[in-house]
Design brief:
2 helices, 5-stranded antiparallel β-sheet, mainly beta, globular, single chain, 6-stranded antiparallel β-sheet, about 45% strand
C-alpha cells in the first residue's frame, strides 16, 4: 500500500533535468562546473548555476538567467591575455554574457555581450533528454609546412 504513495512522487520527478558538467582548467583543483536544474517536469524553465572552483582559495556558486529546456547551451570563451584587468572566462548563454573571474571565482553579467569574447574553449549542452555535457571546441588545425614558407617570386621576364 505504501508503494502506491511513492508512485506519484516518482512520476513527478521522473522527467526533471538535474545534472552537472565540468570543465577542468589546468590542475585538478581548478574547474568550472555548470548545473542545470528543471524543478518540475511540466515546467519548461531551467535554472542554471555556474560553480567556479580554484581550491583552496575560492569556491563560489552563481546563478545565470533562467532558460527554457531547449536553450540549455552555454559557450565558454577565454579572452586574449591583457584584454581584461584580471584573468576571466566569458560565458555566453543566448543573448546573455557573463564574466567569470578565475582569480576570485566571482561572476558578473555584462550589460552587452563583448564584441570579441576570445577563443572558444567549448560548450556546455544537453545530450539526450537528461544529460548535460561539456564538449570541447575542436583545436585549430596547424598550418601545413608548405603554407608557412613564402612562395618564391615568379621568374623575371626576359626582354
Amino acid at each position: 500500500m505504501r508503494a502506491l504513495y511513492l508512485l506519484p512522487a516518482a512520476l513527478l520527478l521522473g522527467g526533471c533535468l538535474n545534472d552537472t558538467a565540468s570543465l577542468r582548467l589546468g590542475a585538478n583543483d581548478h574547474a568550472l562546473t555548470l548545473q542545470a536544474r528543471q524543478p518540475y517536469f511540466w515546467s519548461q524553465a531551467v535554472e542554471l548555476e555556474a560553480v567556479m572552483s580554484r581550491q583552496p582559495d575560492c569556491h563560489r556558486r552563481s546563478r545565470l538567467d533562467k532558460v527554457t529546456l531547449s536553450e540549455v547551451t552555454v559557450d565558454v570563451f577565454r579572452p586574449e591575455a591583457g584584454e581584461y584587468a584580471e584573468p576571466i572566462l566569458i560565458l555566453r548563454q543566448g543573448a546573455n554574457a557573463y564574466a567569470v573571474s578565475t582569480a576570485n571565482c566571482e561572476l558578473q553579467k555584462f550589460k552587452a555581450p563583448p564584441a570579441k569574447p576570445g577563443t572558444r574553449l567549448g560548450t556546455f549542452q544537453r545530450e539526450g533528454e537528461k544529460k548535460l555535457k561539456y564538449v570541447a571546441a575542436p583545436l585549430a588545425p596547424a598550418a601545413p609546412a608548405s603554407a608557412a614558407t613564402p612562395a618564391s617570386p615568379p621568374p623575371a621576364a626576359s626582354q
